[in-house]
Design goal:
Helix content is 34%, strand content 23%. It has helices spanning 73-77, 88-104, 122-129, 141-149, 161-171, 189-199, 213-218, 235-244, 278-289, 294-320, 332-340, 373-378, 392-398, 400-404; strands at residues 3-4, 10-12, 24-33, 52-59, 65-67, 69-71, 112-116, 133-137, 154-155, 174-180, 200-211, 231-232, 247-255, 261-268, 325-328, 351-352, 370-371, 383-386, 408-411, 417-418. It binds ligand JHZ and zinc ion (ZN). Zinc ion is lined by residues 16, 18-19, 21, 59, 61-62, 64.
């Protein structure tokens, strides 16, 4: 079904990753990109890393928007530098999510809650504080070790049906399974959901959060397209995906996090449950936003091309006025943005990030140095391109001093804006 390319780690997606249809409509081609989170150590700065084609297409049969080329997950997730716990916005989101899950699923003292892609255990710690028995599953060895050391029991492996079976054997079935920002990352989402179905006890609840295609399209968040994100989910596509795995969606709640996400609540399809009424309204919003037709999605692709032109023009204007630019947030999406817009080290002096694992490294492809916030204080630019625009409020609050001394932020999406 999937044909290998010249680069062995990358495959052309010529059949839908969910339904197998070959009726795939190309939507947007962003060019060739290095892997967005594979930041470069200074000793490897002179070695060019592989670049892979980055584009999206629509399956006209099941309506899943997906990459045109997928990269072997082991190259991206076996060791990982991204930990969401650097953001207080995320920490607050975890508290709210934990309260919501506890209210939905009657969790007894022995009930098991499993998190797929549990990262450093931040969300699971919120459940532990609520007295819940938890187990994480995390493929990145460095981060799983960190979680275990911090007292969050974590299996270091990818989640699939075999992992689900092993957990069921050792720990029993799960009352709740949670996944945030995971489903979009896997090349075979049906297999992951079949694992969820296998592990979930009768009456159990699956809660999934993934970036929402509707927000991506409505706010021209083209930069959230990178190889880690294999699928871009609409509720339309999620319904079929869940049904194929024996799950039924019973609720869907939009979330502001990560530029707009969808919190999905699903149960085993063999369990009685009445779906929440707002599901119909969300499906109608998706129709209106044009995310389930190739014409609507091509309009988004055109907006993306115009955004690039406007951002390039804004940068050129600032430079012509003698302004010096740096950036804030060594984000995965930032690397898509920099590469697609052709911004280089000549344009962006450095990128500030408070994650110590990222500091001292260079951005993939563009080789822009990543520095600590101390560097910003010592050598402030005139303008900071905000590559973590999804955390704008939190970051701008922290950097009030930068604004007070006359500095400005260049926010790239939904359209370039200096503030
Ligand atoms: P942030 C990640 O994308 C990767 P990224 C992943 N693939 C995914 O799916 C999405 O999240 C959802 C820094 N920061 O969250 C920390 C500061 O320096 O937008 C992070 O490096 N100071 C899993 O990488 C970055 O910004 C601060 O005050 O696009 C934010 O990354 C704050 C708040 C953050 O995700
Ligand atoms: Zn399909």
């Amino acid at each position: 079904m999937i044909t290998p390319l010249a680069a062995p780690a990358c495959r052309v997606v010529d059949a839908c990753l969910v339904c197998g249809s070959r009726d795939l409509a190309p939507l947007l081609d962003l060019g060739e990109h290095a892997l967005a989170n594979n930041l470069v150590t200074p000793d490897a700065a002179d070695t060019a890393e592989p670049r892979y084609p980055l584009g999206i297409q629509l399956c006209q049969s099941c309506l899943l928007v997906q990459l045109t080329h997928i990269v072997d997950p082991a190259l991206m997730f076996s060791s990982y530098l991204y930990v969401p716990s650097t953001s207080t916005t995320w920490l607050a989101h975890c508290e709210e999510l934990a309260d919501d899950v506890c209210a939905r699923a009657e969790l007894g003292p022995d009930s098991l809650l499993v998190e797929i892609g549990s990262n450093d255990g931040t969300l699971l710690r919120a459940f532990q504080r609520r007295g819940v028995r938890v187990l994480g599953v995390e493929p990145a060895t460095n981060i799983a070790a960190e979680a275990n050391a911090a007292g969050v029991p974590t299996l270091n492996r990818f989640f699939d049906e075999a992992t689900a079976e092993a957990i069921r054997q050792e720990h029993g079935p799960a009352r709740v399974i949670v996944a945030t920002n995971v489903l979009a990352h896997v090349p075979a989402p049906v297999r992951v959901l079949c694992g969820v179905r296998l592990l979930l006890q009768p009456g159990g609840v699956f809660v999934n959060e993934s970036p929402s295609l509707c927000d991506l399209v409505e706010h021209t968040e083209f930069d959230t397209i990178y190889h880690e994100h294999v699928s871009y989910f609409s509720l339309h596509a999620l319904r079929l995906l869940c049904a194929l795995a024996g799950l039924r969606i019973v609720d869907a709640v939009p979330q502001a996090i990560h530029g707009g996400s969808l919190r999905l609540v699903a149960v085993r399809a063999d369990q009685p449950w009445t779906p929440a009424p707002q599901i119909g309204a969300l499906l109608a919003r998706e129709q209106a936003a044009g995310v389930v037709s190739s014409a609507g999605l091509r309009a988004f692709a055109e907006r993306t091309a115009r955004l690039r032109e406007r951002l390039q023009a804004a940068v050129r204007e600032l430079q012509a006025a003698g302004q010096r630019l740096a950036a804030y947030g060594a984000t995965a999406k930032g690397n898509t943005l920099l590469a697609y817009c052709g911004l280089s080290r000549d344009d962006i002096a450095y990128i500030v990030d408070r994650n110590p694992l990222k500091q001292g490294r260079l951005t993939p492809g563009t080789r822009i140095p990543i520095v600590s916030p101390d560097h910003l204080a010592a050598d402030p630019p005139d303008v900071l391109l905000l590559l973590a625009w999804n955390l704008a409020d939190e970051i701008r609050n922290q950097l009030a001093w930068f604004h007070e001394r006359g500095g400005h932020f260049l926010v790239p999406v939904p359209e370039p804006r200096l503030c």
